[in-house]
Amino acid sequence: MQDLEENNKSDFVIEKIKERPINKKKLLRRTLITASMAVMFGLIACFTFLIIEPIISNWLYPQEEPPKQEIFPEDEEEMKPEEMLVDNKDEEKATQGLSSTAIDKKKRQEVFAAMEYYQWDVDDYAKMYETLGEFARDLQEYLVTVTAQEKNQDWLDSTNSKKTRISGVVVGNNGRDLLILTSYNSIKAADALTVTFADGYMQEAYIMQKHTSSDIAIVAVSISAMGKRINQVRIAPLGYGKPEGYLTTPIIALGKTMEEIDVIQYGTIISHNNEASLVDANFELLMTDIYGTTGGTGFLFNLKGQIIGMVPGKKPSTEIRNMVMAYEISDIKRLISRLSNGYEIPYAGITGTMVSEEAHQEENVPKGIYVKNVALNSPAMKAGIQPGDVVVSINDKEIVDFKDYFNTLAAQESGSSITLKIKRLVVNDFKELNFNIVLSQAK
Q1: Both ends of the chain: CA-CA distance in Å?
Q2: Which of 48, 60, 159, 355 counts the most CB atoms within 10 A of its CB?
Q3: Domain 350-438: which topology?
Q4: Domain boundaries for CATH 2.40.10.10 within the chain
Q5: Whole-number pLDDT of residue 228
Q6: What is the pLDDT of residues 202-229, one digit of tens each?
Q7: How far, CA to CA in Å, does 328 sit from each of 127, 132, 183?
């Protein structure tokens, strides 16, 4: 029995498998090769991504070119006395100019003399208005109608739609949008905006930027959506000149000066001494002898076809009612330019007026901006500005009139800090004080 068990045990072969020794050199070489290949493929992938990714992104998400800056040249400053001095050559040219002026005057006298002998009749009068009417209808192609649609819910949860139509005019093309000058107050609550051009074509629009105080806004219409119609749009030229030069000159009022009625009205400018006293801005008002209604909007054109005034929907505070009054265009060009380029006008909260020469001489009031009112909780009030203060400089820039004040303020950014140097009446003398104001977003 024992022998049988021993024989059975001998039938199995006991084998021990010995592990193969590790070749460290070969393993290191393979590791280095694998790492090198990984780095190489990574570099190739990065390089390929850098080249192909912008192409794919532009294909899937094409980027528009940034809009070009719109610049509305302001009127040239008056010549300084020293610039009026001329040498001999200039005197000679001036003499020639005087001779030319004398000739022109003589021709005018001859024309007037001939007109005295001409017998004017009703047909001549009718022909004059017919010619003026054709000119006015041609100017209407500059105008557009801005329609604001506002949805309201009543207490029965019924939705009502309200439409407000105001006048606008195309003032620029930045390569991406058509820029339309219009009033803001009537469209500020709109749920949707559309612009109707002179040929009846309608296009969706949006408010690019606004200035609440003056009731001025720039509305934009996408050029890409208009296609070839863009070639038919006419951009209105903004006029130049001094307000006093407009007195008694013929003008044409176009738009919705009678609210919902598109009208053509003729008249003259009878005054330019009125002032729209606004928060952080004062603009000169041109008063006409043309009848208008509250809420009417439109534009004044001269007989050169230039816009010389904008009739805002929100009438400036004045005792004169039912007469068309307009912002003088040269006064608001800086504002139009800033809004057309998407810049907001920062808010300080000061209402005031320029210190007159009479007050300066007789009352010894410093030259600058006399503060009539400071808006509640405005940056100016928080800084400590008070009614009765006189602003004489902003960031060491001398402020003589409200145009200086507005242009300096408009060049700042919301959230930036400015230093106002003011003079405050203390006892019987004006004391100089400095205030730091942190400008906020326009109201």
Answers
A1: 114
A2: 355
A3: Pdz3 Domain (2.30.42)
A4: 141-232, 243-338
A5: 85
A6: 999 999 999 999 999 999 999 988 888 8
A7: 31, 23, 15
CA distance 241 to 300: 14
R_g (Cα) of the chain, nearest Å: 37
**Which listed CATH number (2.40.10.10, 3.40.50.1950, 3.10.20.310, 3.20.20.220) goes with 141-232?**
2.40.10.10
Class of domain 243-338: mainly beta
Q: Within 10 A of 19 (CB to CB), how many other CB atoms are there?
A: 5
Residues 354-399 have pLDDT tens digits of 998 888 888 888 999 999 999 999 999 999 999 999 999 999 999 9
Across-strand partners of 211? 216
Quick one: which of 346, 344, 345, 364 has its CA closest to 355?
A: 364
CB proximity list for 17: less than 8 A, separation 6 or greater: none
> pTM for the complete prediction?
0.74
Contact 89, 96 (CB under 8 A): no
Dihedral sign for Cα 153, 158, 159, 165, please. Answer: negative
